[in-house]
Amino acid sequence: MEHSVWPSSAVHLIPVSTAKNGVSSKSRKRIMPDPVTEPPVTDPVYEALLYCNIPSVAERSMEGHAPHHFKLVSVHVFIRHGDRYPLYVIPKTKRPEIDCTLVANRKPYHPKLEAFISHMSKGSGASFESPLNSLPLYPNHPLCEMGELTQTGVVQHLQNGQLLRDIYLKKHKLLPNDWSADQLYLETTGKSRTLQSGLALLYGFLPDFDWKKIYFRHQPSALFCSGSCYCPVRNQYLEKEQRRQYLLRLKNSQLEKTYGEMAKIVDVPTKQLRAANPIDSMLCHLCHNVSFPCTRNGCVDMEHFKVIKTHQIEDERERREKKLYLGYSLLGAHPILNQTIGRMQRATEGRKEELFALYSAHDVTLSPVLSALGLSEARFPRFAARLIFELWQDREKPNEHSVRILYNGVDVTFHTSFCQDHHKRSPKPMCPFENLVRFVKRDMFVALGGSSTNYYDACHREGF
């Protein structure tokens, strides 16, 4: 995880709801809520369980839906890694006991899990871009290591892969039967959880998982900005956003009180407890149905969890209103969006390479992309979240191409800032590809204010 993205004291590596109205910890349910004026109260536990994304029945999804005269040309998938062990430990408590070995007949189960384990355990023989070749191909510790993918995380992505296979390969024949390595573009950060999530998705997706055709590129930055990472103005937006977070936290006396109580239970200074980001560990307890830790001074409990989670929901709501994060996101997401439309443009010219692109990433990768696209109502990226760009060609007018954008299977194309007015002006069922191109090449900079018309100038604008 890139340290510059969120400081460890910011509780932001976490799910946050995007119900339109977060609710402050001070509000109490009235006996008779007024349905007209009272915002719906966001339930922090419900939000947290959505974030866990516990694998259950296969979900309905809208991927691959298009009028019959449209042909699917290319697909670009951005995922967050699956369920992982926490990155932080609550001081002076026993770590949650979760087994990170893969066991085919243990829950959560997937029909391909056993074959996946046997395929991965033979080793790849594949050479990935360094340093990825030194990472394990699947999780395998009896007590999970910090940040390690769990069996749940593997199953979540086997399921994603299977779902995309049924739609894109079986139905739309995106890859030919004799597909080759250069028809895939695969990139991941240098964490075992992202590489393993990508492999699980591909194992579920590809008709024959052949190591010779699988080459992962390494991306050192969580923003996937490759050679364009230096952007001073982006960092200034981030500093202002972190200050906003800090000030909001200071105002929340109930949050302070809760941290104080928890710190007493585990017998450390409040400041040290907060720096240990306890919500990360508490989410793991919740997702895996393990009780919260206790000491001789008492137990961390669900009420503590609800206060911290509710504050996050409030923080997310204010974050959208104040728009500092949007500035950070427009600059942070530009390089990866620019690379994606470059790949799409080559596909519109009839090039057959890189028809399927997969970026295996983090919450701090997906979150800025969602924000930059104007998807302010999208929930904070859950474990194994997927964001997909589909490129389509109109068979009746072969020069016309369209895009669809889907988040966790929901079509959000007409919620994006570059296509939300499309319906008013056009009867076309999809968003014209040129809308996305114009957005990435020009309108993203216009949205920042100032007079910059390119990424370099926007990143180095004086007097911001």
From TrEMBL:
CDD domains: HP_HAP_like. SUPFAM superfamilies: Phosphoglycerate mutase-like. InterPro entries: His_Pase_clade-2 (IPR000560), His_PPase_superfam (IPR029033), Histidine_acid_phosphatase (IPR050645). It is a single-pass type II membrane protein. Gene3D superfamilies: Phosphoglycerate mutase-like. GO terms for cellular component: Golgi membrane. Its main location: Golgi. Pfam families: His_Phos_2. It catalyses: 3-O-[beta-D-GlcA-(1->3)-beta-D-Gal-(1->3)-beta-D-Gal-(1->4)-beta-D-2-O-P-Xyl]-L-seryl-[protein] + H2O = 3-O-(beta-D-GlcA-(1->3)-beta-D-Gal-(1->3)-beta-D-Gal-(1->4)-beta-D-Xyl)-L-seryl-[protein] + phosphate. GO terms for molecular function: phosphatase activity. One of its GO terms (biological process) is glycosaminoglycan biosynthetic process. It is found in: Golgi apparatus membrane. Keywords: Glycoprotein, Golgi apparatus, Hydrolase, Membrane, Signal-anchor, Transmembrane, Transmembrane helix. It comes from the Eukaryota. Belongs to the histidine acid phosphatase family. Interacts with B3GAT3; the interaction increases the 2-phosphoxylose phosphatase activity of PXYLP1 during completion of linkage region formation in a B3GAT3-mediated manner. Responsible for the 2-O-dephosphorylation of xylose in the glycosaminoglycan-protein linkage region of proteoglycans thereby regulating the amount of mature glycosaminoglycan (GAG) chains. Sulfated glycosaminoglycans (GAGs), including heparan sulfate and chondroitin sulfate, are synthesized on the so-called common GAG-protein linkage region (GlcUAbeta1-3Galbeta1-3Galbeta1-4Xylbeta1-O-Ser) of core proteins, which is formed by the stepwise addition of monosaccharide residues by the respective specific glycosyltransferases. This is 2-phosphoxylose phosphatase 1. It comes from Rhinopithecus roxellana.
